[in-house]
Description:
Blueprint: E1 3-7, E2 13-15, E3 21-23, H1 28-40, E4 44-49, H2 64-67, H3 70-82, H4 84-88, E5 91-92, E6 103-106, H5 120-131, E7 136-138, E8 162-163, H6 168-174, H7 184-190, E9 194-195, E10 205-208, E11 211-214, H8 220-231
Parallel strand pairs: 1-4, 1-6, 4-5, 6-7, 8-9
Antiparallel strand pairs: 2-3, 10-11
Helix pairs in contact: 1-3, 1-8
Amino acid sequence: MSKILMVxxxxxSLTLADGTAHPTxxxxxxxxxxxxxxxxxxxxxxxxxxxxxxxxxxPGSLNPEVVGDADRTEEYRAYLAAIRSELDHPIALExxxxxxxxxxxxxxxxxxxxxxxxDEDLDRILATADAASLPIAPFCHGPAGLLSATDTxxxxxxxxxxxxxxxDEEERTGGLGxxxxxxxxxxxxxxxxxxxxxDAWTSHVVRDRNLISGQxxxxxxxxxxxxxxxxxx
Length: 233
């Protein structure tokens, strides 16, 4: 089985358009589903964050009113408790050797908009992984991390690639609304990516060569399954 690098935000706050601070972190469902599906299939998942800091969970992602299902909320809470030791001792992105891994996974939450989108170590990781044709699997707001990746000429590594991400419509209607500091999908388009939107809040996965992306939390399971299929060859 393979060793998978899961890159997780370490940001617990995002500055909104009006200058206020919004509590954030990783989205519980996304990390839990991806981690659970990959490890159940026998893969070893290594969690890495900027600076090796403990990744915070977005409080909204463990709120039954937000999730819409109290039982699922408790399921996510219990799973995070079960992998607490892994979350408490992540690898620092600066210490990651891409050669050790078979794939890179980036779950979302709004946190990546605050740190991963601008992280120089993630730039190196993604550029190296893409050059080696390793599967790269970001989903929901995780594709914000792709924005960090530039080639030696300063060009966006994923320009011209087809992918999906949390849509502008989803951000407006169920995300941060008009107070979002920037829109992930719109910014990816501005940088040259071909972003495909499906209906809001429906599962949607797009594969372009080694890039496998998911639109939203509802895409978590399908994204994990798509990655497993690729890893199975």
